[in-house]
UniProtKB/TrEMBL annotation:
Residues 3-221 form the NAD-dependent epimerase/dehydratase domain. Belongs to the NAD(P)-dependent epimerase/dehydratase family. SDR39U1 subfamily. Pfam families: DUF1731 (PF08338), Epimerase (PF01370). It comes from the Bacteria. Residues 270-306 form the DUF1731 domain. This is TIGR01777 family oxidoreductase. The lineage of its organism: Bacteria, Bacillati, Actinomycetota, Actinomycetes, Kitasatosporales.
Amino acid sequence: MKIVIPGGTGQVGTLLNRALTAAGHEVVVLSRRPVHPGEVPWDGKTLGPWAEALDGSDVVVNLAGRSVSCRYTADNLQAMMDSRVDSARVVGEAIAAAARPPRVWLQMSTATIYAHRFDAPNDEETGAVGGAEPGVPGYWAFSIDIAKAWEREQEKADTPGTRKVALRSAMVMSPDRGGVFDVLLWLTRLGLGGPVAGGAQYVSWIHDQDFVRAVEFLVDRDDIDGPVNLAAPAPVPQRMLMRSMRTAWGVPVGLPATRWMAELGAYALRTDTELLLKSRRVVPGRLLEAGFTFDHPHWPEAAADLVHRVRGRGPRARA
Ligand SMILES: NC(=O)c1ccc[n+]([C@@H]2O[C@H](COP(=O)([O-])OP(=O)(O)OC[C@H]3O[C@@H](n4cnc5c(N)ncnc54)[C@H](OP(=O)(O)O)[C@@H]3O)[C@@H](O)[C@H]2O)c1
């Protein structure tokens, strides 16, 4: 198949591109700063010659969006919103204008669309979309507004020949440098991989290989459209997530951090505590119902596998 990945130069795009290319597909990446063969220039907001890459393609997986790992300043939040809404809109316009539109458009969304909660898991049917939870910082609602606007842009695109799926993905855990798992492992190795603010908040996650398999599954399944949760069936409280990472790497201690210590750490790392403190208890209702099986459903085993692969990178690559 010919698969086009707008925003495919980042963490998720790189691992998806690698896996799909290895499986024999032709992958074209749209990037604002193309440097590698197979990358086509676009600006993420206006139609241009790049749209020809979509015409006659089989699949589009749009991953474009300003990184969410940043301080949630007004400017950054606006850039997070605009980059997602604009890129989803213009991808929809390119598909609508194509003489031979792709069969399916997988649009990245996020598991963050669901409410901060501890009591029960969120699946697509019964889950609570967030934004009105009591007792959480008001600005957390902005991430949910972004997710809703992002999905709305895909919903309203007039692309009758193209099936549309929104990927409500949890954190994609891969051994690649600079990804979420890499950062958590770095903290673990420093002895800082302990519970944060008690660690009861749930972390939803998906192993990179299951993420790729889920994408392939959704490409093949013509009967599935709309929002789909991409998350392992067993989200874990943050303290258990870190405990498994300590066990996997062989680190005896992980200092606990209070909320204000997390604030300081997040400030130093130029990121936001919402990523650490929000309880994302998200489960893959529709994938399981459709018969998808996870190769890595449980975190302790998934963490061990990822650590094994990080160790396989060799000491220079690990540094
Ligand atoms: N990583 C995860 O675990 C995870 C989980 C759930 C959802 N997501 C979402 O999935 C998408 C991909 O995640 P990722 O971790 O691969 O992100 P990433 O590493 O930040 O990559 C996103 C890509 O989007 C492009 N981009 C950045 N700012 C842009 C802008 N203003 N306009 C247009 N394109 C822009 C960049 O490509 P160029 O610079 O080459 O143009 C970048 O490589 C993101 O939207 C993210 O929010 C990620």
